[in-house]
Design goal:
The chain folds into two domains: 18-47 and 133-307, Multidrug efflux transporter AcrB transmembrane fold; 57-129, Alpha-Beta Plaits, CATH 3.30.70. Helix content is 66%, strand content 7%. The chain has twelve helices and six strands. A four-stranded antiparallel β-sheet has the order 3-4-2-5. The chain has a two-stranded parallel ribbon with strand order 1-6. β3 and β4 (93-98) form a beta hairpin. α2 crosses α10 (271-303). It is elongated.
């Protein structure tokens, strides 16, 4: 079973196996709905762990190998910060966040942490952010998100079409909800670096989505004039053609991000790199998924409602095809698949010892060979 599965993956990676994406969209939709509900539930029940830059207050950080959160809380009981938010970051650093008033209260917490860890007061870093600054930072982050959505919608609507803009925005919103929900579920702190990572995620997700949309527009330009295929079938062909490009792009993007997370965070102890890298890793995976299973599905469902494609689906159904919702394999001729697919097919045929023609007579939609004329004997 394992060998068969690995063989299927190998053929899919080489582009020799056609995946029925529309057949997977329903299960993907259910999985996305469950993930969105869990993410929103985490935000409502647990809440987002916003950094001090957003909420305001005072934060103390001190290297404390071997010191637990409980020990730190016990040390702070006489300082007025016993109810502070205490967490371990970077493996061996204690971070304390609390709203205290006055320089004496700040120094009291600093001295308690220094005494607990055996450090000097100068080794305890203190950051104080006023509530007005935190409110301004939150507002600016929200404005940046809204401006991003508006510009993306306008660009895609002009460059491609408004249905694709709707599909892309739904996919991006899906990615952001899952990424923020992941942070809320595991109570990772959301800082300005994390917000930058979220904006980067949206840009990456849109890049992958636009690659899919551009390919389907190319396929529709070549195939739709025949009136033989539904938009869903053309979308399925496009997804198969760009699948490995998306997967390879994601893998090459994840390698440096994972290196940054492991080396920068766990080895060098840079907490900011950890916050940035986790958001990027989650976003790359979710963004690749949403381009193939959310953005593509939304556009296909919307386009199938257009009168021209409704007529095509009805005509296919009358001929005994699968226009009612199934997906057929588009003819494997060079005019449809393009030169790259023809080259792959020829290479596969040579490897198998078969002639490298465009398709066999038994292939669905294949063009039968032209019979040769017999020479007359004089």
């Amino acid at each position: 079973m394992t060998g068969r599965y690995l063989g299927w993956l190998a053929t899919a990676y080489r582009g020799e196996h056609q995946i029925d994406f529309p057949g997977l969209w329903k299960r993907a939709l259910i999985g996305s709905l469950v993930a969105v509900v869990v993410s929103l539930g985490s935000l409502v029940v647990l809440g987002a762990n916003l950094g001090i830059e957003f909420e305001g207050g005072t934060s103390w950080e001190v290297p404390a190998p071997g010191v637990s959160v409980g020990e730190a809380r016990d040390a702070l009981r006489g300082t007025g910060a016993a109810d502070a938010k205490i967490q371990t970051v970077g493996g061996d650093t204690i971070r304390v966040r609390a709203d205290v008033e006055g320089a004496d209260a700040v120094d009291s917490v600093r001295n308690a942490l220094a005494g607990l860890t055996g450090r000097t007061g100068d080794e305890v870093s203190v950051t104080t952010v006023g509530p007005s600054w935190g409110s301004e930072t939150t507002t600016n982050a929200q404005i940046a998100l809204l401006v991003f959505f508006a510009l993306v919608a306008v660009y895609i609507a002009i460059r491609l079409e408004w249905r694709m803009a709707v599909g892309a925005l739904i996919a991006v919103a899906h990615d952001i909800i899952l990424s923020v929900g992941f942070y809320a579920l595991f109570q990772f702190e959301i800082t300005p670096a994390t917000v930058i990572a979220f904006l980067t995620i949206m840009g990456y997700s849109l890049y992958d989505t636009i690659v899919v949309y551009d390919k389907v527009r190319e396929v529709v330009g070549r195939v739709s004039a025949t009136g033989r295929y539904t938009y869903t079938e053309m979308m399925n062909l496009s997804l198969n053609q760009v699948l490995m490009r998306s997967v390879n792009t994601s893998i090459t993007s994840m390698i440096p991000v994972a290196s940054m997370l492991v080396i920068g965070s766990f080895v060098l102890g840079a907490v900011t790199l950890q916050e940035f890298a986790i958001a990027l890793l989650v976003g790359i995976v979710v963004g690749t998924y949403s381009s193939l299973f959310v953005a593509a599905a939304v556009v296909a469902k919307m386009k199938e409602r257009e009168p021209a494609y409704v007529e095509i689906a009805e005509r296919i159904r009358m001929r005994g095809g699968t226009g009612g919702g199934g997906t057929r394999t588009i003819a494997a001729d060079d005019a449809v698949l393009g030169s790259s697919a023809a080259t792959k097919r020829s290479a596969s045929a040579r490897k198998a010892g078969a002639p490298a023609g465009p398709a066999t007579a038994s292939s669905p939609g294949a063009i039968p060979p032209r019979p040769r004329k017999k020479k007359r004997k004089r």
